[in-house]
Amino acid sequence: MRLWAAKRIASQHGCIVAVSGAVDYVTDGVRVVAVRNGDALLTLVTAAGCALTALIAAFVSAAPADPLLATAHALAVFGLAGQEGLKVAPRPGPGSLRVGLLDMLHLMEQAHSLDEVESFVGISSALLVNMGTLSPEWLASKKLAAKRAVELGIPWVLDPVGCGATAVRTTACLELLRCRPAVVRGNASEVLALAGAVGSGRGV
After folding, report:
1. What is the pLDDT of residues 40-70, one digit of tens each?
2. Beta-bridge mates of residue 187
3. How is residue 43 annotated by DSSP?
């Protein structure tokens, strides 16, 4: 079901869709790549999905010619970072894994202000739009950033956090989807909600 939803979104909107789970899938509507690594504890690490989407944006900016393979590589590297993070964790648990995982990943610059978001996009190689915080000003800045990225030909990645959980959040995600992201990365319920499946979202 989640692979069907991912392929439908990719075909309708001309983007790459990555849906995470026990097996991660990446598709452009025709090709499908399955990534099997990582650890089940990653699902218990708060904001792990957001960090993954940031990594995808970095990989797509480095290899824009084939965003599907770039996304698949990002998923594989993230899973490996989780596995390596567990090795350095003092105890096997989500709290320790979080620290170990973050030690394996780079920090990324963030901008939210309407006054500076277009300038930041202009000097970036890629853009990540994360729907985690959804205040009116932040939503406006997300839309502005996405539109500016499209104007400049900069690949951008949408993380539809919580899509399907509320009508406001779902509407906002669908509006951004129409701005033609290069990649969409969500969990199964988020991708199903984007594809129009009723009652699929229960949270983030």
Report:
1. 888 888 888 888 998 899 889 888 889 999 9
2. 20
3. G
Residue 196 backbone class (left: φ over 0; alpha: ψ -120 to 50; beta: rest): left
Buried (b) or exposed (e) across 46-74, using 16+ Cβ within 10 A?
A: eebbbbbbbbbbbbbbeeeeebbbbbbbb
How many whole angstroms separate alpha carbon 56 and alpha carbon 20?
A: 12
Q: Structure tokens of 128? A: 């990540």
Per residue in 81-135, pLDDT (tens digit) is 888 788 777 777 887 787 788 776 643 456 677 788 888 788 777 888 999 888 8
Rounded to 5 degrees, what angle do the CA atoms 71, 203, 98 make? 55
Angle between helices 94-104 and 48-62 (to 10 degrees): 20
Whether 20 shows a pLDDT value over 70: the answer reads: yes
| Pairwise CA distance, residues 160 & 15, whole Å | 14
Q: Are 97 and 85 in contact (CB under 8 A)?
A: yes
**What's the whole-model pTM score?**
0.70
In terms of Cα–Cα distance, which of 41, 128, 37, 102 is closest to 76? 37
Q: Report helix, strand or coil for 185.
A: strand
**Pick from 187, 197, 191: nearest CA to 15:** 191
| Mean pLDDT estimate for the chain | 87
